[in-house]
Amino acid sequence: LPLGSNHAWAWSIMEIWIFTLFFLWLWKFLLGKVKLTPVFYKSKVIIVILIIWLVYIAFQCIPLPISLIQWLSPEAAYLHSLSSIKSTATLSVAPHITAISLLKSISYLLIFLLTILLVRREKRLRWLAYTLVFSGLYQAFYGSLMLLSGLDSLIFEKKYYMDVATGTFVNRNHLAGYLEMTLAIGIGLLISQLTDSTDFTWKQRLRSIFKWLLSGKMLLRLYLVIMVIALVLTHSRMGNTGFFASMMITGLITLIFFRKHATRSTVILLISLLIIDIFIVGAWFGIEKVAERIQGTTMDTITRDEVDEYTLHYWQDYLLTGSGLGTYYLTFPKYRGHDIAAFFDHAHNDYFEFGVETGIIGLFLVGTCFLLSLWVALLAQYKRRNPLNLGIAFSVVMALTAILIHSTVDFNLQIPANAATFMVIMAMGWIAYYLPHQGKRRHRSS
Fold it and tell me: What are the distances in angstroms from CA 261 to CA 173, 256, 264, 388?
């Protein structure tokens, strides 16, 4: 999580650690100490698609006959011809940059595999969910403390976004994206612990309220409040919009299509989240500033719409196979108009960036993985009966929807920490649907 792992030294540490974990698992697998899980076998479809994605990105880096490159990507062939006359060329305009991105993509696949291979029991699924919540809580506490105390940073010197919360990230929008995902997991955990009250007298209801206040549910609710405070303090327009919109969308889907699982407690919780977090927490910690930023957003005050327009022109030259994963910052300046003075290393739109870098083929592969995981999480909400699986399925749908919304104006999926977390949450959707329910075992005394 240092700087979102968006620096070479940081993502290298992340990759080394993920590869080490995977090879340790593989070593134990060869020794017969661990085995493939039922979830792994049921997730073969998405695993195969992710492997095809890796092969496709590797294909962008491999030297191919120049005639084939001219057919697949005339613009890439033209750029390669400017340096020297060659008999071979690559689809990527900068194959060494794409190779770096390929290594990241491999680590993302491995963390997806590790998640479905290691989360073999409901207890581990709960541990994983709480780990993500505590990680988000740390980011929220750290970011809020640095902002409200006036300190720049305890670890890295803060150079940008001095008046908003950024956590250990450089960009406030990426902290917002991380909090969207971890908040969704926390809400799913809270839903999994809810039960409809059967109390009828005021004395019974009062007793239930005090019992709830002293339980771990109240502590988890407090964690969520702290995280919402930090989300508001980022002043991220689409971060806050994505979070609250995804919660309402997922809640409505649950109420309309999965009524048998939408208990009265779930409805009350979602309503309380909206009311308490927006009107009470937001009023104290500056949600009006977020609202002012949203109201003040016009086509004249932002440049992202012009960047999107120029990015579409860029995409037309690399429509089928893209310019190479990770090459946006190298290629975009050629298409940037004179009205764009700033340097853009990313498209501020994940859909466009994946499109221009990997073409229609790559965008189709990425989109298929995303939609499959969303569909599986929705199926889990419909078919599963276990409260934990239902809660995790809700959180996966909410987290994916939040990033789906946020990605229209930002690049969270280009930040390694957020992309890795996104892959873990996608894997949790498959686990929520396919993890066998471990009922209480009866032990007979001899």
Answer: 33, 10, 10, 12
Count of alpha carbons within 13 angstroms of residue 162, beta-carbon side: 5
**Structural tokens at position 191:** 């839903």
**Gap between the Cα atoms of 281 and 334, Å rounded:** 45
Tracing tokens 């108009």 back to the chain, one arrives at 337
Distance CA 22, CA 132 (A): 20
pLDDT band at 298 (very low <50, low <70, confident <90, very high): very low
For residues 397 and 381, is the Cβ–Cβ distance under 8 A?
Answer: yes
Predicted TM-score of the model (pTM) = 0.89
The residue assigned the tokens 């209480």 is: 440
3-state helix, strand, coil in the chain (%, to 5): 70, 0, 25
- Asked whether the beta carbons of 232 and 290 are under 8 A apart, the reply is yes
pLDDT tens track for 91-126: 999 999 999 999 999 999 999 999 999 999 999 999
Distance of CA 218 to the CA centre of its chain: 26
Q: What are phi and psi of 408, to 5 degrees?
A: -70, -20
CB atoms within 10 A of CB 278: 15
| Tokens at 270, concatenated | 């979602």
Dist. CA 28–CA 18, nearest whole Å: 16
338-346 long-range Cβ contacts below 8 angstroms, 24+ apart: 339/303, 339/306, 340/303, 340/306, 340/307, 340/310, 342/303, 344/307, 346/411, 346/414
CA dist list (Å): 149 to 146, 166, 421: 5, 14, 29
Give the pair of three-digit tokens for residue 376.
Answer: 């599986």
Handedness of CA 44, 48, 50, 51 (dihedral sign): positive
The pLDDT value recorded for residue 281 is 60
**DSSP annotation string for 90-113:** -SSSSHHHHHHHHHHHHHHHHHHH
